[in-house]
TrEMBL record:
Superkingdom per UniProt: Bacteria
Pfam families tied to this protein: Peptidase_S24
Signal peptide: none
Domain HTH cro/C1-type span(s) in chain numbering: 91-111
Gene3D superfamilies: Umud Fragment, subunit A
SUPFAM superfamilies in UniProt: LexA/Signal peptidase
Name of this protein: HTH cro/C1-type domain-containing protein
Alphabetized InterPro entries for the sequence: Cro/C1-type_HTH, LexA-like, LexA/Signal_pep-like_sf, Peptidase_S24_S26A/B/C
Coiled-coil ranges per UniProt: none
Length: 288
């Protein structure tokens, strides 16, 4: 088995198996933290269980501001926020969110995804700094599913689907990519579960120049049969002196870690490669 962790890393490792569809014990010692606790460890996990309307109410309360005043300050009609509150099944556009954020003195990323600063900093003139455009259109690659080895042509990374996602403040020059999660192999991830149907927003590992660190949540790819069969899944990374583990964090005990010993024996035909570092996760509704 070979482990490819970066463009410049050609170290070969063999052994280890990943029986995601077989029974086994799941290690749960993962040390996952948010960016505020340890930079570049596990990424940013917005609490998307909260509706955007809750965050709007929170900012109105913080500012002691009326819906009408916030709507007008953001360049919306006088009833912009009130109309949004009356239609709980409607999802605002990103353009509307940026206007709402301006009227609520917050960032569009916090308002939409509960990520990034909640309150705009005050500039030298005393006014709040206007937020930069906070979103990108990110390509959605193939789904990630533990235990599903598929033919290479099943991984069409140019599906033509795009998703709106926050720009990454820590890695502004890294390319972003999104995946749709299939399955329950990370449904006990902390501090935010990664559930079936969720979207994860990632930065490409090859753009980062990082060393693998304990607790990083990554998209990992296994290939067998000369690359003809491959599996992509989300795992918690745990390097050790003699091996590397990619662990599930699941309520389903059939999921097992990928274990890659540091062994210089000949390659057994299996390659494990880190594709991306997970930075955001949110549910399929995205903005509610």
């Amino acid at each position: 088995m070979s482990l490819a962790v970066s463009v410049n890393d050609a170290q070969k490792m063999v052994g280890g198996q990943h029986g995601a569809e077989h029974a086994g014990n799941v290690p749960h010692q993962s040390r996952v933290t948010t960016r505020s606790c340890a930079e570049n460890v596990a990424g940013i996990f917005p609490h998307m269980a909260r509706d955007i309307r809750e965050r709007i109410r929170e900012r109105l309360t913080d500012l002691k501001k009326s819906m009408r005043a916030a709507s007008l300050d953001g360049g919306l009609g006088a009833d912009g926020i009130r109309d949004l509150m009356r239609r709980p099944n409607d999802s605002p556009t990103m353009e509307t969110i940026e206007k709402l954020a301006a009227g609520l003195n917050t960032t569009a990323a916090w308002l939409a995804f509960e990520a990034g600063p909640k309150t705009l900093r005050t500039g030298p003139s005393g006014g709040g700094n206007a937020p930069d455009r906070a979103f990108n259109l990110v390509r959605i690659d193939s789904a990630v599913k533990a235990g599903a080895f598929l033919q290479m042509n099943a991984f069409d990374d140019d599906l033509g689907e795009m998703i709106t996602a926050p720009r990454d403040p820590d890695y502004p020059f890294a390319r972003q990519v999104a995946y749709r999660v299939d399955g329950d192999s990370m449904d006990e991830a902390k501090p935010r579960p990664i559930r079936d149907g969720d979207f994860i927003i990632c930065v490409l590992w090859e753009d980062l120049g990082l060393e693998p660190r304990a607790g990083q949540i990554v998209v990992v790819e296994q290939t067998i049969n000369g690359g003809q069969l491959r599996e992509r899944s989300v795992k918690a990374l745990h390097p050790f002196p003699d091996h590397v583990e990619f662990r599930p964090m699941s309520s389903n005990d059939k999921h097992e870690p990928i274990v890659v010993p540091h062994d210089m024996n000949p390659d057994d035909g299996r390659e494990v490669k880190i594709l991306a570092l997970v930075r955001y996760v949110f549910d399929s509704q995205i903005i509610r």
